[in-house]
């Protein structure tokens, strides 16, 4: 069953895969994703680790707490979606996984 497999190269293959994954994670962490809501009244930026790195809120929204909350949630969720899709697409391309 395993007669045609060269196990001496298995460690090298695993090390290469580990390095690719680490590089992928490092590159992803450096990326930034920004989404806006309310026609640009709120903007949220996150990095590839899904950490919020910036939020911008137009001054006029401070008078309307409910609208501010809705627009803030929307901008953050959209930024997370952008980062998630980018990470998924980059991983698929990197590992040649097609539509996975």
Characterise the protein shown here.
It is rod-shaped and about 70 Å long. The chain contains two helices and three strands. The two termini are 29 Å apart. The mean pLDDT is 87. The protein is 51% helix and 18% strand. The protein has 100 residues and is α+β, with helices and mostly antiparallel strands.
Question: Keywords, please?
Answer:
rod-shaped, 51% helix, alpha+beta, 2 helices, three-stranded antiparallel β-sheet, 100 residues
Query: How many beta-strand segments?
Result: 3
- Contiguous uncertain segments of 5+ residues: none
Number of helices: 2
For the record, give the distance between the C-alpha atoms at the N and C termini, rounded to a whole number. Answer: 29 Å
Largest sheet: 3 strands, antiparallel
The level of helicity is: 40-55%
Encode the helix/strand succession as letters.
HEEEH
Q: Evaluate the radius of gyration.
A: 20 Å
Which structural category fits the helices and strands? alpha+beta
User: Looking across the biggest beta sheet, what order are the strands in?
Assistant: 1-2-3
Q: Indicate the overall shape.
A: rod-shaped
Q: Estimate what percentage of residues fall within beta strands.
A: 15-25%
Average pLDDT for all residues: 87
